[in-house]
Amino acid sequence: MSASFEFDPFDAKFFEDPFSAFKVMRRDHPVYKRDIPNHRIWPHYWMISRAADIDAALKDWRRFSSAKGTLIDTDISLIPPNIFNMDPPRHDELRAILARVLTPRRVADLEGAIMSAARGLLKEHVAKGRLDAATDYAQMIPTLTMCSLMDLPLDDRAQFLQWNMDTLAGNDFTSPEALKAYGEMGAYWERLVAERREKKGGTDLISQILHHDKESVTLSDEEIGGFCSLLHDASQNTTMNMIANSIVALGRNPEQRARLVADPSLWGVAVDELLRFVSPVQGLARTTTEDVTLHGVTIPAGDQVLILYGAANHDETVFENPEVLDFDRPRVKSHWALGQGIHTCLGAAVARLETKVALQALLELAPNYKVVESDLVRNQLVPTRGVAHAPITF
User: Can you give the pTM of this predicted structure?
Assistant: First the structure.
């Protein structure tokens, strides 16, 4: 046993390489308790790190509930309601509405616009020989895609990005800055919903949610605003960090990058392997509804549990040589990057498409880019493995 072992996912010293700590946790501390100094809601939380335990927890919403939130030590009454923080039956009713409007055809139709946006962003910087893969590129593509899906003014995209950073890019999700952003977003969505309610026949996601089959499910204005917030935050945060982390990963693995340039048929498996390797969502919380005993340790009812998706995706009992990026890896689709169970990411197809197209465009224009490692800055580990700056040169 590693008696002196310590791991804090909110400590910046773990941001670059959490996987070494995860390996020790899986081996010696599969149920690990972390106290919270100056806590707000919970005085401590637990972490689970083995793939089998994580898979079981994600599929057991009755014992591992989302109803008290998926962010550590956060009062969700301060956050707009959304399906992340719900259990069935309401979760299933609202998820079904979004699933009906976010169709495979709608996702596929985005590809041309995403590629055009990606090429346009890159061409602004290729001649300069350098760009920040996070701020100049990865953060822009999901924001532009969100504007397309929700029919939002492109002139507002800087504000959307700022709201996203204020609410999800730190370690206090109800900070004064976050609450101010939620308030501003709430007012923005209220105006938007009022406009779309009067406008019949709109094809954007919000109009289709508003004018869904009302006989099946009744939506409150607060829930509609929650949909908007969910689409705003989830559609940007995870994907922008996935793209930036993938650019860094490919920069560090030039042989795998060269294979993608030479053989475009690899893109499907490559995106799944990058999702596993990067694990853009490193961990989300659940709350136990009863005492849960794992590996001889009892987690009391009512405690928060941080489910470490990133640890599951690097579990050596599932993936051989998990710290290696390998586009020939068997079972690559058996990963937890996009969740499992009832909360499996609804926007998974959009995230995959945005990541693939962003990387394709970059390798098309600058296949031999280099990451400026000395200037790489990470700003978060959970819930997402955030990249604040990732300069690359051509």
Answer: 0.94
